[in-house]
Structure to design on (92 residues):
């Protein structure tokens, strides 16, 4: 299974591997939601962004349009995010 670019937003090999291993959905309407979140954060000057959704967190390097890593909700317990200057919460 190959992870496709999300409207210009690409997944690093590491992020693509995590999506596949954890069965995180990146298809359908979510593609638009993720891209919109990144675009809105870019307008506010974000560089390194955590997009926090109902099933996962996507860490995005905004200037390069690259999802650098993905964590499922289960993986987030007791986790600390560093080098993030912005966050976007995506409602269910």
């Amino acid at each position: 299974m190959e992870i496709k670019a999300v409207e210009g937003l690409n997944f690093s090999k590491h992020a693509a591997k995590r999506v596949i291993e954890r069965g995180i959905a990146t298809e359908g309407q979510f593609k638009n939601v993720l891209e919109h979140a990144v675009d809105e954060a870019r307008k506010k000057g974000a560089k390194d962004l955590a997009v926090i959704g109902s099933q996962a967190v996507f860490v995005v390097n905004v200037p390069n349009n690259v999802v650098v890593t993905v964590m499922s909700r289960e993986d987030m317990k007791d986790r600390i995010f560093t080098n993030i200057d912005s966050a976007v919460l995506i409602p269910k």
